[in-house]
Design goal:
One of its GO terms (biological process) is tricarboxylic acid cycle. The protein is mainly α. The protein is 74% helix and 0% strand. The longest helix is centred in the N-terminal third of the chain and has 32 residues, at 18-49. It is extended.
């Protein structure tokens, strides 16, 4: 006897909530940040392993000179993911302390977290744009 029903009906029955959406994006941003850390680590190690460094510098020059918009957009997207992940982590720390756990107060820190993440990402993008992508000297 075979029953025709979906395997995961919870995805189609329940409508997405703010807390579940932020939880999913928190996991996605954490995986993206871990991937970016591994990618940056291995890309620098490839240059160290090359015996002549010629191919590594040719590759590096191509990306920085011709495709700088890809690097800038990737850095901005990483900053947005970092700001979201960090703000959501602060929200979870507040939940561990006990406040904002009532049903009427659950959405308030989520909306505040969203605005804080957007504000932090915007400040980082403005700072990067004003410094023309260079590290400021102190």
């Amino acid at each position: 006897m075979k029953i025709n029903r979906p395997l995961s009906p919870h995805l189609t029955i329940h409508k997405p909530q703010l807390t579940s959406t932020f939880s999913i994006f928190h996991r996605i941003s954490g995986a993206f940040l871990a991937t970016m850390v591994l990618f940056s680590t291995f890309s620098f190690k490839i240059g160290d392993l090359s015996p002549t460094f010629y191919h590594f510098y040719q590759y590096f020059f191509f990306f920085t000179f011709y495709l700088n918009w890809v690097i800038i957009s990737l850095v901005n997207f990483t900053l947005l993911a970092l700001c979201h992940h960090m703000s959501n982590g602060v929200r979870h720390l507040l939940w561990d302390l006990g406040p904002f756990l009532e049903l009427s107060k659950v959405y308030t820190p989520g909306i505040i977290m969203l605005f804080c993440a957007a504000f932090l990402a915007l400040l980082n993008i403005i700072r990067q744009h004003r410094s023309n992508g260079q590290i400021p000297y102190r």
